[in-house]
Design brief:
Length: 248
Amino acid sequence: MSQGTVGDERPADPERLVVAQVRGLHGLKGGVRLEILTDDPARFEPGRALYLEGESAPLTIAWAQEDGPGILVRFAELTDRTSVEPLRERYLEADAPSEPLPAGTWYWHQLVGLTATDTSGGPLGRVVDVFRAGGGDVFVVRGPRGEVLVPAVGSVVRELTPAEGRLVVDTDALGLDEEEPRPRPRGRRTTRAHKARTAGATGEGSATSPASAVTTEGSATSPGRAPAPGDAAPTEGATSRDPATPGA
């Protein structure tokens, strides 16, 4: 089984990655509640700069506090509730890391569009989205069987070669031919995932080959989108699969 990883979508700016989405407001001093779309918590340390999707003015993090699965932050440039009201549901980008991803690891956006087949070469469709559920990555494949959710683990994904545009799935291990429908994996797909299907964009995240642990953040634009209407910067996140590691 080849190594592989999952990550972001199409870039809005080749130098930026989507790292969060503003989900709500907090308090009267300009606090906002973020849904985290990156594997790098350092993105939200005080003093770090974020950018509203498609905009160039930086927002400097002045304060941050963990909040369950998300995080609360305040920006130095926005000091009251009224000033952050327009941020609701907006995506936040960060500068892309200069270091390349480890070998055998890709951003989710690099996996969107892969052709998925079963082990005998039969068509399953194309990867239209990638999301994280329960600490692992899941490929959303759409094709002749409708929408199929493929967990990125070695027992199911037999080959992942983005350079060749291929994803080979063991449909027996996945249980596609079982009469009883398999339960849908629990996990959050952001509204960005819906944009990605129509605009070719995704989020910041990378993945390693199925069967291994999910790795670090996504890349700029590659995980995101271009600043066009309905398009978004790539999300930060990565996934990788280690063929030597048993699937989960």
